[in-house]
Specification:
By secondary structure, the protein is an alpha+beta fold. The protein has two domains: 2-172, GAF domain (Beta-Lactamase), CATH 3.30.450; 243-399, 2-Layer Sandwich (Heat Shock Protein 90), CATH 3.30.565. The chain contains eleven helices and 13 strands. The strands form three sheets. The chain has a six-stranded antiparallel β-sheet with strand order 3-2-1-6-5-4, sandwiched between helices. A hairpin with a 6-residue loop joins β1 and β2 (62-67). α1 packs antiparallel against α2 (30-45) and α2 (30-45) packs antiparallel against α6 (150-200). The structure holds adenosine-5'-diphosphate (ADP). Adenosine-5'-diphosphate is lined by residues 301-302, 305, 329, 331-332, 334, 342, 347-349, 352, 358-363, 387.
């Protein structure tokens, strides 16, 4: 009899996992989904708390992204060290059941310290999809304080398998949002290419008109190509598929290279360009090609948005464990209302068009690269007076 009762309780529990999994698969909003997963995990294991750690696709770091309980906000974004228990589970792709965390040297107290919660026992399962680990799902302390059993592990594993699929789907959905935005942006240049090409088929237009139309078509087609390239680059950076090849980089030498590439445009606009670089600057921990892309973009914008006879000033300074690079211009400046948005993709200040062509993706790419390096970018600007972009990039740590 006891056996039958046990069996039906077990069946009911797995049925509940199935029910919850169905709900997860219907949720495409990532934060809402993660919240559902931790609640479901807690329910099926009758535990006091549950949390999800995700692997940052860019840095590979494991951090808390969702947790049950009122203190969930406190643990959010807390990074756990790679040698921690969760780090081990993510790396090995194996389940860990710990009945007394105080006896496990791998257990990291960072989340407990932030939330005021006290972890005694836990199960940590990897969130895996097609052999890739997306993160770790944890449940903590059985409500009745009994040790975890095999069935707890089994139900949690089933839930984790479904949760991984749902997380991947929600991420894909976010990407498709990016794609629809892109398609929308591509329409403008495409529409003018089609319109001008149609005009060109008419027999009653004069040769000088014809030439002007061809030039517009060429210009718009060039812009379209730039947008596609920039967009693909941004998508690659955002998804973490762009791997950085880190090495010690001499940022002063790199800046000098970038300036010499810019010189023809600088001369053409009769801009005076100065640079200030002290000797013996520490090396930056970075991807040389990507950092060049950042500097070229900032210098390019400074020259692009500064009128003839203006000034551009670049400086490199040591700053604690980082190096600070600033690019200052005496150009048109950025209105205060636009300033908070200029790093958003496709964002261009309303009247930029009259000044220069662009995709509105340059600064989004710059920000992605700088942040992937663990750096920071800031901007200050006044309309009519000019703009200063300031970068902070981490230096190579002494071994
Ligand atoms: P774009 O391709 O339009 O230059 P970015 O992402 O590089 O795109 O820059 C976004 C917007 O920020 C630009 O359209 C421009 O309005 C503004 N901006 C960027 N740099 C400067 C600068 N140095 N001076 C004035 N405005 C700038």
């Amino acid at each position: 009899m006891a056996h039958t009762a046990e069996l039906s309780a077990r069946l009911a529990r797995f049925r509940r996992v199935l029910e919850l999994s169905r709900v997860l698969n219907l949720t495409l909003d990532l934060p809402a989904l993660l919240d559902l997963i931790v609640k479901a995990a807690r329910e099926i294991t009758t535990t006091e708390a549950s949390s999800i750690l995700l692997t940052d696709p860019k840095t590979g770091e494991l951090y808390f992204e969702a947790a049950t309980g009122t203190k969930s906000e406190e643990v959010k974004r807390v990074v756990v060290p790679p040698q921690s228990l969760a780090g081990w589970v993510a790396r090995e792709g194996k389940v860990e059941v710990i009945d007394d965390v105080s006896r496990d040297p791998r257990f990291s107290r960072v989340a407990d310290e932030q939330s005021g919660f006290r972890t005694r026992a836990l199960i940590a399962v990897p969130l895996q999809l097609k052999g890739r680990t997306l993160g770790v799902l944890e449940v903590v302390n059985r409500e009745d304080d009994t040790p975890f059993n095999q069935e707890d592990v089994d139900v949690l594993r089933s839930l984790a398998a479904q949760a991984a699929v749902a997380i991947a789907n929600a991420r894909l959905f976010q990407q498709s949002d990016l794609i629809s935005e892109m398609v929308h942006e591509l329409r403008t240049p495409l529409t003018s290419i089609v319109a001008y090409s149609e005009l060109l088929t008419r027999t009653d237009i004069k040769p000088d008109q014809q030439r002007a139309f061809v030039e517009t078509v060429l210009q718009e087609a060039t812009r379209l190509t730039a947008m596609i390239n920039d967009f693909l680059d941004l998508a690659r950076l955002q998804s973490g598929r762009a791997r950085m090849a880190y090495e010690p980089v001499d940022i002063c030498a790199l800046l000098r290279d970038c300036i010499s590439v810019m010189m023809p445009q600088v001369h053409q606009k009769n801009i005076s360009l100065h640079f200030e670089m002290p000797a013996d600057m520490p090396l930056v921990h970075g991807d040389r090609g990507r950092l060049k892309q950042v500097l070229m973009n900032l210098l390019g914008n400074a020259v692009k948005y500064t009128g003839s006879n203006g000034h551009v000033h670049t400086a490199v300074l040591p700053a604690n464990t980082s190096v600070q690079v600033s690019v200052q211009d005496t150009g048109r400046g950025i209105p205060e209302r636009d300033l908070p948005h200029i790093f958003e993709k496709f964002y261009r200040v309303q009247d930029s068009e009259g000044w220069a062509t662009g995709t509105g993706l340059g600064l989004s790419i710059v920000k992605e690269i700088v942040e992937a390096h663990g750096g920071q970018i800031d901007v200050e600007s006044r309309v009519g007076a000019g703009t200063t972009f300031t970068l902070k990039l981490p230096t190579v740590r002494p071994s």
